Amino acid sequence: VTIVVMGGSFNPPTLAHKIIMQSAVDCIDAQMGIFVPVSHAYLKRKLRKDGGRICFSEEDRMKMLNIMCADDKRLSASDMEYGSFMVVTYDTLGKLQKRYPEAELYFLSGADKKKIIMDWAAKGDFLEKYHLIIVGRDGVDFERDFLEESELLDRRESFVFLQQPEGIDHISSTAVRKRMNLGESLEGFVQTEVMEMLDGISEKDFPEEIERFIEEYDFLSNTCLSPFIWEGIAWKTAENAFQASKFSSPDRRKEIALMSAAKAKQRGNLISASKEWEDEKVEIME
């Protein structure tokens, strides 16, 4: 069995994703093409750098991918990266290899990822275990560019070079999100059924989230200086009171009340909290 694997955000999945995958599957006569979307945590971190707010849930992205794969029985999607914060392609392929022990795995990558691929080559057995399909645009001799590197030339049998299909240069998830914000048609950018899912959605449907309690949002942090009285003791911060609640001794609690928030957290983490405390900790924090 030969399998092509495409990782990515798929936020949302586009016709370009599908066309490139189908071209790769056809190119090596593979039996399967598997889309592997990144986790929500990884996608949120990526979007923070890009400044975008449209961030589809893991469930919605998987639903759209399944819709996109429905008319081609060779294609499917896997949620194996869901729930993780980091994306490690080597680990993902390892998990797939365990699932399909007899399969030859081909990972699909853009020619613009040469630096990352060089890192993979330098780390040992990646190119010994797996193959890469490198997709590049017309007019660019990306195959020659890749094979100028001695460590890649030595592994020439690990690579398949594929010209990007024509007519999809303008299609990307970023372009789709921009069109969504402008209220423009998504026809020709996404699968028809996916287009119906996305109809009328824009950034206003994804409120800005407060993800870090710093600067103007410092007051939301448990470590923010906010003196208050609780259970007869004066506390500097909510963190002090929370950590002190792990201790039954009034003297120990008073001691922790005088510490910095960081020191209080450190002290609280040194002990194993009781089962009762674990059951009550949410109520305590509230």
* Unreliable spans: none
Strand order of the largest sheet: 3-2-1-4-5-6
Shape: elongated
Helix proportion range: 40-55%
Secondary structure tally, helices:
14
Distance between the termini: 54 Å
Structural class assignment: alpha/beta
Number of strands: 8
Major sheet size, sense and barrel closure: 6 strands, parallel
Rounded mean pLDDT score: 92
- Rg, Cα atoms, Å: 25 Å
Order of helices and strands: EHEHHEHEHHEHHEHHEEHHHH
Q: How much beta, percentage-wise?
A: 5-15%
Structure description:
The model has no long low-confidence stretch (mean pLDDT 92). It contains 14 helices and eight strands. Strand 1 (2-8), helix 1 and strand 2 (32-37) form a beta-alpha-beta unit. The protein is α/β, with parallel strands linked by helices and 286 residues long. The chain is elongated.
Give the arrangement of secondary structure elements.
Blueprint: E1 2-8, H1 15-27, E2 32-37, H2 40-50, H3 58-69, E3 75-77, H4 89-99, E4 104-110, H5 114-122, H6 126-129, E5 131-136, H7 142-147, H8 150-153, E6 159-163, H9 173-182, H10 192-198, E7 228-230, E8 233-235, H11 238-244, H12 250-257, H13 261-269, H14 275-285
Parallel strand pairs: 1-2, 1-4, 2-3, 4-5, 5-6
Antiparallel strand pairs: 7-8
Helix pairs in contact: 11-12, 11-13
Summarize the structure.
It contains 14 helices and eight strands. With 286 residues, the chain is α/β, with parallel strands linked by helices. The chain starts with a strand and ends with a helix.
